[in-house]
Amino acid sequence: MNAHLKPSLWAVVAVARGLPTFLTLLVLLGAEPLFAHLHWEKTEILLTPKSTAVSATAEFIFTNRGVADVFIDDIHPDCNCVTTPLNKTRYAPGESGRLVATFAVGHQTGEVTVPIQVRSREGMSGVANSAVLLLRVKIAEVVSFSPRFLYWKKGDPREPKTVDVSILHGEPITLREVHVENPAFRAKLMPTDDQERFILRVEPPPEGGRALCPLTVISESRESPAQKNEHTMIARIL
């Protein structure tokens, strides 16, 4: 239903739906459309967590600007990396609430956009409404690989290659080890004179066809050694 209908047209709709006369009168007097119930302060929020963070949280604030209770029936993030618990589903006229969206950083990198669909219902008329919120996440890397994607083309000699691995922004971490997920590959993480720079030596399988190998470097906090994080790059035979 179009929230920009003129008051007179809203009155026709109100009468057609059998709404009480006083509500029709409110519309005729130029009140807010009855069915534009939830107003969101922001429909898009940007988060900038570090890649070492466990999660990041955004709060979407809303207010019921209608004249009847509003029920939130469903909240559906477009990614299982986002959780959106809601402590209540019924909001009285004039009442505000907040939808807390928590993004699990995990092994994700770069920029991620997650649409969140919110379905609500106006309690008196049963008119349904839907809003789409956007949670944008720009994950700040604290470990860089140069290059991040290492490959050997068909016909290339199967010789070891190296990757520069750097700790960024003075992050108080060190790099401890590398996990090789494909046993046909070998890798060794070597320190340099600079505590924020390491060399990763990757050795491909001597023979065979196409192959893929994620390489995961484990970082450790200098302040709390038990706090570890994973940073992944890819090696492959094309």
Summarize the main sheet: 5 strands, mixed
Task: List the strand order in the largest sheet.
Answer: 2-9-8-4-6
Mean of the pLDDT scores? 87
CATH homology superfamily name of the largest domain: Immunoglobulins
- Cα(first) to Cα(last) distance is 54 Å
Strand content: over 45%
- Per CATH, the architecture of the largest domain is Sandwich
Structure description:
By secondary structure, the chain is mostly beta strands. The chain folds into three domains: 1-34, no CATH class; 36-139, Immunoglobulin-like, CATH 2.60.40.10; 143-237, Immunoglobulins (Immunoglobulin-like), CATH 2.60.40. It is 8% helix and 50% strand. Strands 2-9-8-4-6 form a five-stranded mixed sheet, with no helix packed on it. The chain has a four-stranded antiparallel sheet with strand order 1-3-7-5, with no helix packed on it. It is elongated. Residues 1-35 have low confidence and may be disordered.
Gist of the model:
Helices cover 8% and strands 50% of the residues. The protein is mainly beta.
Describe how the helices and strands are arranged:
Layout: H1 7-16, H2 21-28, E1 38-40, E2 44-47, E3 55-64, E4 70-77, E5 82-83, E6 90-91, E7 96-104, E8 110-122, E9 128-139, E10 143-146, E11 149-152, E12 161-167, E13 173-180, E14 186-191, E15 197-203, E16 211-221, E17 228-237
